[in-house]
Amino acid sequence: MTWNGQSHSEARPVANCSQTPPFNRGAAYTKSREDSPAVRDRGANGTSPLNYDHIFDQAIQRLHGEGRYRVFIDILRNKGAFPNARCFAGHNGPKPVTVWCSNDYLSMGQHPKVVAAMEEALHDVGAGSGGTRNIGGNTHYHIDLERELADLHGKESALLFTSGYVSNDATLSTLARLLPGCVIFSDELNHASMIAGIRNSNCEKRIFRHNDPAHLEELLAAEDPSVPKLIAFESVYSMDGDVAPIHAFCDLAEKYNALTYIDEVHAVGMYGARGGGISERDEAAHRIDIIEGTMGKAFGVMGGYIAADTRIIDCIRSYAPGFIFTTSLSPVLVAGVLAAVRHLKESSAERDAQQAAAAELKRRFREAGLPVLDTATHIVPLMVGDPVRAKKISDILLAEYGVYVQPINFPTVPRGTERLRFTPGPTHTEEMMAELTAALVEIWDRLELEFRKAA
Ligand code: PLP
């Protein structure tokens, strides 16, 4: 079974860790530079397990060698004018760019209600929360937002975390440890944060083929009926833009008496009449035990959460180290999310405009013969199939066309499926789409890349 080109059981969110020599800190605590006694004693030939600099250099070299070393872009968004931004790449002052790869899918990070709510909170209660939720860091904003999110998903309760990553890791690892002998059934394309949670639970896991209920059933049927089971999957898979067969998975959960856990990170705010995600759109929320989401994508700010019945929330709140032992989100952030969630419960204008923009961009790419994946969601992946070429296209777009889109490489996607992932939003205009498509056609020609033949 593969996850991002690796075996799921060995999958690591950090590239190629398996090639890193083991650190034996027990052997010596000297920080061994080339000229330190520890390294000199061992020959300083660059292969010593205590030559830390060399090991770090090699780790970075591996990424350069594969053409997937990441470079941060130095950018500022222009508030109220998204997707316009300023890029500080050269020495001639900031250059205007158009952002095409933001996960602030609905531009809520710029929304006047969100900005005003954050300003008001800042002036009302100050910057930080001042502690963990249990000691010093609880505020009325946190409680309000949890109520709002529980209502969004039709659940009794919700619980905030500092990110979507932490919510997955903390909840999955804690749940499985609370259920004696629990076996987790995990979709092979689950996000790194879910894999981390499953690994940290130390429980048994079974990996089922992506979005494949038949394979999931085979694995469920092979298990002892008396052991606790948890089925973990995402709703929208953010790289290929496909959607899980939620009802089929819930049918199996009922048949085999398993709990269900869904990651709706790329769907909350985006789907359903009130932004409750695919589980709302497909009228499946009541069949799912734990719904997880982020506040950093369609809600435009930062943080993560789960929604579930009060009993489960109380257990996670009381046992998950990732919730207990960390400073809670700033009330300023929470106030911004509250405004975004409330707005998107009532307004579908942003969702509709975003869906229209995604459909329009896919149509333009398709008609230009560009190899776009025909997804059923808002994600627009343009397939390149090679990390060096993907980076080259991204570099040309930024330097020559003022278009900002990052290449997506392993381990986020399997090797050989590298791509550019466009996220058009409600504020990307048709003119911007026409310019982008023309730029890509020119680059495809210049680099002699293959166009897709008309069907
Ligand atoms: N789950 C999925 C499917 C994701 O794609 C991501 C992030 O991209 C996360 C969880 C983590 O969410 P956050 O960015 O809020 O940490």
Structural overview:
The protein is α/β, with parallel strands linked by helices and 455 residues long. The chain contains 15 helices and 16 strands. It has a seven-stranded mixed beta sheet, sandwiched between helices. It has a four-stranded mixed beta sheet with strand order 3-4-5-14. A hairpin with a 7-residue loop joins strand 4 and strand 5. Helix 4 packs parallel to helix 12. It is globular, with a radius of gyration of 23 Å. It starts with a strand and ends in a 9-residue tail after the last helix.
Major β-sheet profile? 7 strands, mixed
Strand order of the largest sheet: 6-12-11-10-9-7-8
Helix content: 25-40%
Number of helices: 15
Q: Rg from C-alpha positions? A: 23 Å
Q: Which regions contain 5 or more consecutive residues with pLDDT less than 50?
A: 1-34, 38-44
- From the N-terminal CA to the C-terminal CA, the straight-line distance is 33 Å
Please report the total strand number as a whole number: 16
Keywords:
455 residues; binds pyridoxal-5'-phosphate; 14% strand; disordered N terminus; single chain; seven-stranded mixed β-sheet; 16 strands; 15 helices; four-stranded mixed β-sheet; alpha/beta
